[in-house]
Amino acid sequence: MTTYQKIVLASRPKGAVSADNFRLETAPVPTITDGQVLIRNHYLSLDPYMRGRMEDTKSYAAPQAIGEVMIGGTVGEVIDSKNTKFSVGDKVVGGSGWAEMCVSDGQMLRKVDTAHIPLSAYLGSVGMPGMTAWYGLTQIMQPKAGETIVVSAASGAVGSVVGQLARIRGCRAVGIAGGPEKCAYVVDELGFDACVDYKSPTFLADLAAATPDGIDAIFENVGGVVFDAALARMNPFGRIAMCGLIAGYNGEPMVMNNVRMILTMRLTIRGFIVAEHLEFWPEGLKELGTLVATGKLKFRESVAEGLAAAPEAFMGLLKGKNFGKQLVKLV
Amino acid sequence: MTTYQKIVLASRPKGAVSADNFRLETAPVPTITDGQVLIRNHYLSLDPYMRGRMEDTKSYAAPQAIGEVMIGGTVGEVIDSKNTKFSVGDKVVGGSGWAEMCVSDGQMLRKVDTAHIPLSAYLGSVGMPGMTAWYGLTQIMQPKAGETIVVSAASGAVGSVVGQLARIRGCRAVGIAGGPEKCAYVVDELGFDACVDYKSPTFLADLAAATPDGIDAIFENVGGVVFDAALARMNPFGRIAMCGLIAGYNGEPMVMNNVRMILTMRLTIRGFIVAEHLEFWPEGLKELGTLVATGKLKFRESVAEGLAAAPEAFMGLLKGKNFGKQLVKLV
């Protein structure tokens, strides 16, 4: 190989993301210098937060620059190294972005063990999505055994971990997902106590039936009417971890109607970005890695084949077409 | 005196509170038994939270019962005592409700010193409203010197204390109030750095001008569009103490539009009821009492004369017609 492919941000979305927001480019394979490693990426992670970066608005992170490689987490293999900490053949987790190859100085690169944990899981349950779930649950929702927790996008990379970790802590875990197939998976495969289909005409009644003792904590990935419905069922002193608002990513109005519940139920709502809490990662990844290696934490992956498939897979993710963690397989 | 007057809840409001929701009744002065004291109330406190109790909806407190004396804080004087802890002539703070007299077993009654602090202040800056401000500021907003805090209903019993305490802690204190007269008072008398008139057509621009470095913490008494405007200017890791939502007390839609800010700015929003945090009262009341006694904490009172004036004064309070702490003078 003398060249590799990458995908850059061609333009910012106006409303929904479209294919012409991206451009596939070919570049020569770089030559590394002292201290650097060359990585062949095996999997690219697609995550909802990328949608926010495509916008040029005030947010927690700088916007993705036009013409630069789309940001993103990756796992791959070191294929050349002039860095004493990494050898050819090492499996690594990094943030190369939407590209088949990348050069790293080793700073943000982490060697991982694939003997008991599949490489792709380091982009999911044992990576940023898993840590997002772990942090939100343990640090914000702080659930006690016997409490009821609700998580939206429950079949996704983050939501699936939230519910399983809550079950391990003795909680009643109730998922919200789109469609009977995802709901069946959440209950039958992931072991949630219940899962409610937000697309069903009986959604409100179903949510009430699934949370007979009210809701003590919410992990919110979606926002909008689904969130409002859960908010209305909160118990006193409930906690809400605000992780994502995918329902409004394309600029749809995103209102909260049950604001009064914050006061009358003395709720705590906290937005968070897991990358700002790196001090918790060792503890969290240890629990997540052990659970995955021993088969106690289940996950599912939607895998698109080849870098060129990334834009369509990403657009599907934003519409909830994925089922579990959305990846792009590059090798 | 062989009889006294009291006001009971006659009916629940449909929309705005009206005079026929209340009924003035006359009762014989009670005879006290062992352990009891008889109190002649001097001042009755009117507070926005009473509006919530008039509703029969799920909230943090049981609704006010129909036909019973309207709840409320009072200060007065012991005029008969069969309780060894209280003597005739003692000045006391209690929760007698809307009545000229009441009998107490002494449990929820507190003797106060009026040598340096006027009796009425125990219903305001050195009472529940002051403690509401103190708790929200110190425990939820946790302001650091140099930060900008915003408080709505800034000329009111709670808001006026929030801003003054924040100034003492080295913050830039920005109030929001209704009309130029209240705004002038908030700046000129209370010493806030700025106050923005929410009734002005230039409100949004004025708020931006008053908070050039954004907003680090909000004390929210009002809700609705005023709150949304402040929310839009929050800095990362901002804190919001949700104390009241007076804009929606009559059932008006109460939506939050800038929900996304919770996530992008990693905000923490917490609703609270100061009566649930009694462990902080000694510390808070000590600071508030010292500040009032030394003239460093200023306040203003709107005083209605006579129990029969209470309903109209209360309706005025809900419309923001009061200026400072709303009281009813009974003696």
From TrEMBL, chains A, B:
Pfam families: ADH_N_2 (PF16884), ADH_zinc_N (PF00107). Keywords: Oxidoreductase. InterPro entries: ADH-like_C, ADH_N_2, ER, GroES-like_sf, MDR_fam, NAD(P)-bd_dom_sf. The keyword Nucleus does not apply. Residues 18-328 form the Enoyl reductase (ER) domain. Gene3D superfamilies: Medium-chain alcohol dehydrogenases, catalytic domain (3.90.180.10), NAD(P)-binding Rossmann-like Domain (3.40.50.720). The keyword Oxidoreductase applies. PANTHER family: PROSTAGLANDIN REDUCTASE (PTHR43205), PROSTAGLANDIN REDUCTASE 1 (PTHR43205:SF7). This is NADP-dependent oxidoreductase.
